[in-house]
């Protein structure tokens, strides 16, 4: 049976925070409880256009998360959903959690009339890319980051 996916609830805070801390650790980000707490406030409160989804087990305990936000697409004059974060608890991997979260993201996009669900991942994240390749199309685009206040040279 596929995991059930639903929006985050206030009662999910502790389990969500553990998952999000695991996500941050996976991407070798420093342990930062303040960043986790701020992100929870944004996701649970819908701030910055964010929508938090969780995949839950039979006991309604979150075992995966997806954080989405709306973004304007001027080239198509449409709105898309951007998947900022997707993470499955190590104990739930291989059970269809990520796929269920991605399918729900697509359903939300369809219900909202969004034109796309878009995300990035690390090039060497082979396990995640196998899941992504099964449900989405990889694009030829390359991602860049520019630090605020960077000189033009």
UniProtKB/TrEMBL annotation:
Every N-acetyltransferase domain range: 3-153
Gene3D superfamilies assigned: 3.40.630.30
Family annotation (InterPro entries): Acyl_CoA_acyltransferase, Bact_Acetyltransf, GNAT_dom
Keywords: Acyltransferase, Transferase
Cited PROSITE patterns: GNAT
Cited PANTHER family: AMINOALKYLPHOSPHONATE N-ACETYLTRANSFERASE-RELATED (PTHR43877:SF2), AMINOALKYLPHOSPHONATE N-ACETYLTRANSFERASE-RELATED-RELATED (PTHR43877)
Name used for this protein in its record: GNAT family N-acetyltransferase
Organism, scientific name: Curtobacterium citreum
């Amino acid at each position: 049976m596929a995991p059930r996916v639903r929006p985050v609830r206030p009662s999910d805070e502790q389990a969500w925070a553990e998952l999000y801390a695991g996500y941050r650790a996976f991407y070798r980000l420093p342990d930062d409880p303040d960043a986790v707490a701020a992100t929870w406030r944004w996701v649970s409160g819908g701030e910055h256009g964010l929508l938090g989804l969780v995949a839950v087990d039979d006991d309604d305990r979150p075992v995966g998360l997806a954080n989405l936000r709306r973004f304007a697409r001027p080239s198509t004059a449409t709105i898309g959903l951007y998947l900022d974060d997707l993470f499955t608890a190590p104990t739930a991997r291989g059970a269809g959690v990520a796929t269920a979260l991605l399918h729900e993201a697509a359903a939300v996009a369809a219900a909202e009339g969004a034109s796309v669900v878009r995300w990035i991942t690390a090039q060497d994240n082979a396990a995640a890319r196998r899941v992504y390749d099964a449900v989405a199309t990889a694009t030829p685009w390359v991602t860049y980051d520019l630090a605020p206040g960077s000189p033009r040279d």
